[in-house]
Amino acid sequence: MAKKVTVNKDLCIGCGACAATAPSVFAIADDGKADVIVPEVGEADEGACRDAAANCPAAAIEIA
Ligand code: SF4
After folding, report:
1. For the residues of 4-63, what is the DSSP string, one character each?
2. 56 lines ligand 1 (CB under 6 A)
3. Pocket test for ligand 1, best of 7, 9, 36 (most atoms within 8 A of CB)
4. What digits encode the pLDDT tens for the residues 27-44?
5. Ligand 1, closest atom to CA 26?
6. Does residue 16's CB lie within 6 angstroms of at least one atom of ligand 1?
7. Average pLDDT over the chain, rounded to whole?
8. pTM beyond 0.85
9. Of the four listed, 5, 9, 21, 62, which is most buried by Cβ atoms within 10 Å?
10. Pocket lining: 22 vs ligand 1, CB cutoff 6 Å
11. What is the rounded CA–CA span in Å between residue 27 and residue 30?
12. Residues near 28 by Cβ (< 8 Å), separated by ≥ 6?
């Protein structure tokens, strides 16, 4: 089932790790913080997304 992924910009420090781990889901935006670039994450990207969330140094990524 598709998952909704969000980045809490108040927590994000713009390190870029999520965009490196799951480039089809995350990108660093003009504000220097991560954006989720897809409305929902499918099964193919879910593993990378969970890795990104687990490795985010600011614990800014939520997967619902
Ligand atoms: Fe922001 Fe976390 Fe992504 Fe780093 S890994 S850019 S802190 S959301």
Report:
1. -EEE-TTT-----HHHHH-TTTEEE-TTSSEEE-SSSB-HHHHHHHHHHHHH-TT--EEE
2. yes
3. 7
4. 999 999 999 999 899 999
5. 3
6. yes
7. 97
8. yes
9. 5
10. no
11. 10
12. 14, 16, 19, 34, 35
